[in-house]
Amino acid sequence: MFRLLKQEGRAKRGEFTTVHGIIQTPVFMNVGTVAAIKGAVSTEDLERIHTQVELSNTYHLHVRPGDKIIKQLGGLHKFMSWDRPILTDSGGFQVFSLAGLRRIKEEGVYFHSHIDGRKIFMGPEESMQIQSNLASTIAMAFDECPPSLAERSYVQASVARTSRWLERCKKEMDRLNSLEDTINKKQLLFGINQGAVYADIRIEHAKQIAGLGLDGYAIGGLAVGESHEEMYHIIEETVPFLPEDKPVYLMGVGTPANILEGVERGIDFFDCVYPSRNGRHGHLYTNHGKINLFNAKYEMDDRPIEEGCGCPACRRYSRAYIRHLLKAKEMLGMRLCVLHNLYFYNTMMEEIRDALDAGEFAAYKQRKLAGMISSR
C-alpha cells in the first residue's frame, strides 16, 4: 500500500494507496473535527485548494450527531459529500484534553460529554466500532496521550496500557472488516507510538508495535508542552525503529517550520488546527512570514494577502477588504483567511514533494525557512 518513490537522507517521497484514492506523501491533512473545516469551508472548497485527506474526530462525531446515525446515512464520505481519503482519530487525544471529564481504567475511559454531561464509555473496541460506523479510510488506534512532561513511572504504565489497547484494536478491526454490514471493509489501521519525552521508552514502544503488521504508524503525544528541540529529538530517535515500508504520521504538528523539520526526519503525514484556527483570527501564513490583518497598517493595503498566491482569497480580494470583513465580524472574512492558510499548507506540501522528486529538498527547506523569517 505504501510505495517509496524517492529518498533524500531520511526525507521520503511516497504514494499510499487506499480504497478512496492514492495519497501523495508527504501530506498535510486538513482538520475537519466535526466533518467540516471551521470557517464555513465546503467540500467543494477543499477540492479547489487541493486537499488530499480530510481528518475528522471520532469522539466529537460520536457525541454529535452520533456515529450510528452517520452509518445509517451511508458513512462519513457520503454524509459530508467527500470522495477522497478521510482519517479519523480514535478519541485518544480527548483522554488528554478532557482530563477533567474522564477516568482511565484498563477496560477503557469513562467520559462526561463536554456538551451535555452525559456519561460515555470508550475503550479500544468501542473506538474501532465507532470508526467502522463512520467508515473512514484510515482509523487510528485508541491510546492514552500522556502529558509530555509527565513522570517517568506514569508514562511507562500508560505506554504499556496503550500497547495492550492496540492489540485489542487490531483484533476488533479485523472482526469489523469481516462483517457483512460494514461499509468500508478495507478500513486501514494506524498504531500510535507514545512515551512522552523519554527516548528509551519511545524506542522500546516503537519496537513493540512495529511487529504488529499495521497499515501505518503514528507518533503521538508531541507538541503538547515540550520544546521544539525536544520534539525533534524524539522524532529522530523514534522513526528509525518504525517500519520503513509503512507511512509515519506525526500527530497534531504543526507550524510550517515544524513540518519541514518533520519531513527531514522521515515523517509522511501531518495534521494541525493551526491554519484554520489562526485564519479565523486574521493570522495568515505567507512565504515572507506570518501577518496579522488586524494590524492598522493593512487598512489601506490593496494588495492580496500574498502576491502570486492562487487561493480563492488572493485571486480576488485585497488585504484591506478582508481586514474590513474581520473587523465587522463578517463570516466571509474568516472563510477567506482559512482558505488562504489551508491553500498555503497544501501548496507547501506540493512544493516539498516536487523538491524531493528533484533531489533538492535540503535546498528547498533552507530557502523556505529563510523566506518565512522576514515578516511584512
UniProtKB/TrEMBL annotation:
Residues that bind substrate: D89, S90, G91, G92, F93, D143, Q194, G221
Database matches in SUPFAM superfamilies: tRNA-guanine transglycosylase (SSF51713)
Catalytic activity entry: 7-aminomethyl-7-carbaguanine + guanosine(34) in tRNA = 7-aminomethyl-7-carbaguanosine(34) in tRNA + guanine
UniProt-annotated catalytic positions: D89 (proton acceptor), D271 (nucleophile)
GO cellular component term of the entry, any: cytosol
Protein residues bound to Zn(2+): C309, C311, C314, H340
Domain tRNA-guanine(15) transglycosylase-like: 10-370
Family the entry assigns: Belongs to the queuine tRNA-ribosyltransferase family.
NCBIfam families hit by this protein: Q_tRNA_tgt, tgt_general
Protein EC: 2.4.2.29
Pathway: tRNA modification; tRNA-queuosine biosynthesis
InterPro entries: ArchSynthase1/Queuine_TRR (IPR050076), TGT (IPR004803), TGT-like_sf (IPR036511), tRNA_ribo_trans-like (IPR002616)
GO BP field: tRNA queuosine(34) biosynthetic process
Record note on cofactor: Binds 1 zinc ion per subunit.
Renumbered residue ranges of the record's region RNA binding: 252-258
Listed cofactors: Zn(2+)
Name by which UniProt lists this protein: Queuine tRNA-ribosyltransferase
Source species of the chain: Parablautia intestinalis
Coiled-coil segments on the chain, per record: none
Role played: Catalyzes the base-exchange of a guanine (G) residue with the queuine precursor 7-aminomethyl-7-deazaguanine (PreQ1) at position 34 (anticodon wobble position) in tRNAs with GU(N) anticodons (tRNA-Asp, -Asn, -His and -Tyr). Catalysis occurs through a double-displacement mechanism. The nucleophile active site attacks the C1' of nucleotide 34 to detach the guanine base from the RNA, forming a covalent enzyme-RNA intermediate. The proton acceptor active site deprotonates the incoming PreQ1, allowing a nucleophilic attack on the C1' of the ribose to form the product.
